Each structure stands twice: as C-alpha cells, then as structure tokens.
Amino acid sequence: MFQRHRPASHVIARRSFMNDPCSFVYIPETGEYLLCYQWSVSTQDSYGECYGTCTSTDLVVWHDKPSAIQRGHASYDSQACFSGSILPRTEHGHTVLYLYYTSVSSMPISWKLPYVPGCETQSLAISRDFGKSWQRHAANPLLKQPPAAHNTTGWRDPFVSEWPAMAKMRGKAAVTAYMLLSSGTRDGGPCVRLYESSDLVNWADLGVLFSAQRNAPLTPPVPGLHYGENFECVSFATIGNSLYLFCGVEADSSQSTRHDGHFVFWHRGTIHSPECPTFVPIASGTLDHDILYAVHTTKTEHDLIQLGWADEDDNKHKLEQDWSGVLGLPRRLCELSVPKQRMIDSHAWTSHGDRMTTLGIDVYAASHLLRSTSKHYNGYQLHEIASARFELDLVLSVAELVFCFRMNDQECTRIIVDKAAITLDRSRSSKDNGNTLMRSGPFQLLQGESLHLRVFCDGSLVEVFANGRFCMTSRIYPSSSNALSMSLETPPGVDLSNVSVYADLKPAWPGRIASASL
Q1: CATH of domain 16-352
Q2: How far is residue 496's CA from residue 502's CA, in Å, rounded to a whole number?
Q3: Is 347 in contact with 446 (CB distance < 8 Å)?
Q4: How far is 461 from 451, CA to CA, in rounded Å?
Q5: 8 A C-beta contact, residue 502 and residue 455
Q6: pTM attached to this predicted model
Q7: pLDDT (tens digit, 9 = 90+) per residue, 262-317?
Q8: Domain 371-503 in CATH: superfamily?
Q9: What mean pLDDT is predicted for residues 314-336?
Q10: Are 117 and 97 in contact (CB under 8 A)?
Q11: For tag attachment on the chain, is the N or C end more exposed, with fewer CB atoms within 10 Å?
Q12: pLDDT greater than 70 at residue 45
C-alpha cells in the first residue's frame, strides 16, 4: 500500500504527513538549493512537528538532511513550527541564513475558532554553516501578537525578502528587509500585514499592505473566485517592472468548489502611499486550477521559482499508506508580453498600447532531467506504452484534443483541451478511490499560436502545463494496478511526430530505500 500511489519523482517526505514548502534558498558556497517543508513525522493529523530538510544541485534529484527546526524547543513553539522563509545575507564574505517561522504555542488555530492571543508568534533561527545547524535567536519571539488579537483570524507564514523598490520609495537602504504576514480580521476580511527591518531582528509594523472584504469577489474579477476568510502563505515578487502578490485563500469549504476551500490567486498591482504602503491590484489570475496550495516563491541564481503543496484527495487511504502530501514540480515565473488581442481570461491581462502582458508560469526547465531517454515514444507509438509515471510533451497546431491515460477497460483519466478551457475529467479515474470531480480552467490559444501541452503523471499526482501560462495540479487513485495505457484523440490528419512521451520517470531520491521504513 505504501508504494501504490506514491510519487517517486517529486519532493516528498520519507513517510507520514507533509505539507507547505517553507524556506527555499540557493547557497553559492555549496552550489546547492536548500529546501524545508512542514513535516509531521509521527502522525497524519497534525501540522508543523518539524521542518523536513533536503538539498539539490538541480531541483530534480534530492537528498535528505537533518531537520532544520523542531517544535518543543521552548514555550513559544511548543506546539508547532508553521511555515516561514529564509533570507540569505553575506556576512564577512560568506552566506548566513536567517530562517523566519511562525512559532505556535496553542492549537488548534482556525479562522472558524476564537483567536487565542499569543498562539502564533514570529521567530528566527540562524545558520552560519550553510544549513547544517541552526540556533534560535535569544530575542524570540521577535513579534509577539497582531494588533487587536481577539479580532484576528490568523497571523502567520512570514515571507521575508529584500524589496529594493519598496526601500527606494520609502527612502531606506536597498538591503532593508520586508516581511509579509498572512492574516485577517473577523469584522473585515483577509489581509496582508507588512513589516520592515534594518537589522533582521527588530521589525516595525507598517500596517496592512492589502486587504479585502470577507468572501468578496476577486478584483479584477475572476469567475467563481472570492477572497475567502483568511490568507495563508502570502509572498511577493518583482518581475521586470511589475509587482506580483501571491495569496493562499482559506474559504468555507461548504461554500467552495475548491479542495478544502483552498486556492492560490495572484494579483499584479502597484504600491500607493510610501508612508503606509498599500497594494492596489490591476490584474488577477489563478495560480493553479486545482489542488496546489501554500506556494513558496524564491529567487535562484537566474530564475524566479515557485514550489507548492499538493494535498491528498483520498482521505480514506491516508492511514493505510502511511504517507500524505507531496510538492509539485518547481515552476518558473516570468512575465509574458504579446500583441494585443481579445482573450476569454481578460482579468489576467494588462494592456500597454498595442501589447498586453500577463504572468507566465511553466515547469522549471531542468525537469527534463527526469526523462528516461531509453523509454522515449512518439505520438504513433502510444499504444506500446504501459506506465504510471511519465511525461507527455506535445506541440500541435490544434485547438482541441483529448489525452487519455492511466487507462484500462474500466478506468481512465482524460485531459480535454477545447477552444475555451482545459479540463481534467476524473469521472472514470477510479472505481472506488479518491475524488472523481472534474476540474477545469479557462485557456485560449493566441492568434497563430500552436498548443504546447506538457503532462506529468507520477503515481497519484498529475500536473498539466500549457503554453507557459496555464497550470493544473490534481490527484487520481486508479483502483486497478493495470490501468497503465494511454491514447491521444486529435482532429483527422494531424501529424503526431511532435508528440513525445517519456515513460518511467527517473526517481528524485536515489539515496532512499523504496520501502515504508526510515
């Protein structure tokens, strides 16, 4: 049961429950990326027992490392270590890592429950040996409670980064650090609080950077999406001259079609009023059209990268399989600029004269290293393939197609591309396991554009990328071990030579033993 639906080519804990990616950074002295994620080693039912830690030189092959921090070190983090981020600084010629995290002293915490002042505080751990060891700061917790704590729905997930444009606007040094905290108020709605520091220890509260009314529609509107009750795992990024804000939404799951009421939206916008900075959105979009959540954004050597968490969508097998949760493949963010034209998702585009721009999101380029070149098939050979772990990569001059996979005579999952949307049809994905609801997101080809579709299937995890601006992450749980076939339906006469499938993706963890034991 342990291996049956378990992804092998993604970041995943050795066992038990994992969730948010938190603290992701490149260390030039080691030539490695250091990644932490929330991991509950001993249970499937709690959050933040410790920070699982791993390293990679390419964001494809990973190696386990000792946990960076664990709960219970002191009274302020006796219950959990929630999400956070790492700010690298060069001191005396080498990189020092400042890890900020939400220290939790009382649980449960939910926007549905009365807020206990002091249950969430913000703390710091420092590493001077490139992540091998960490020391908590003597001044912890650095931030002890939000304003009007009794009226708060949440106050967590510190995202800390330099922000040269903000520093310049406020007349501060370029190395000034800024912290975003995800929050909300009961009599208002979700919000993002902004803090500023020149010494990385003492933080000034600059107020609310962005706020929304409870359950109000996104502005600019995105069909069917609302701001919900509380924000989580908020981050920002400057791409070119544009500022983007990424927010995880906690909504009432009984009134939301999203998994557990969770989704991530992005806003492109501008900053007003340097004395009390306020973010004003001018474009909106959905970061992922299904289950990916709690995204973490970081700048690497050359790229802006995001990682996100994919929860399970089959609760009844969590305890049996002894693991839960996985991170999606790393994604590269950019800004796309194209000739101005009419689009069905106009909320995601901003016009500038005869051109328009939107957020570009695509799988990170190094993901091709997962391919097994000895198991490469073209579009005319799909009938020869039997695989639960593969990549489909196609470029076709078509606006409509249907790709069927994890298929036998009783089960199959379908990806349907038409002129207005990309849909994941899970209605026959399993006879008796998991969520079989269909998922869909708006998608339209630009004038003269070919369809570039990439699909990664790794056990129960499915990721769909299209034309550098569409992403969908989902879960499937086929009941039959022989549901391994695939097929592609296209209009008559389409040349399938530009269709590639790489079967049996390479494992991401060469140092692990393929068993449930540690």
Answers
A1: 2.115.10.20
A2: 15
A3: no
A4: 23
A5: no
A6: 0.96
A7: 999 999 999 999 999 999 999 999 999 999 999 999 988 789 999 999 999 976 66
A8: Exo-inulinase; domain 1 (2.60.120.560)
A9: 86
A10: no
A11: C
A12: no
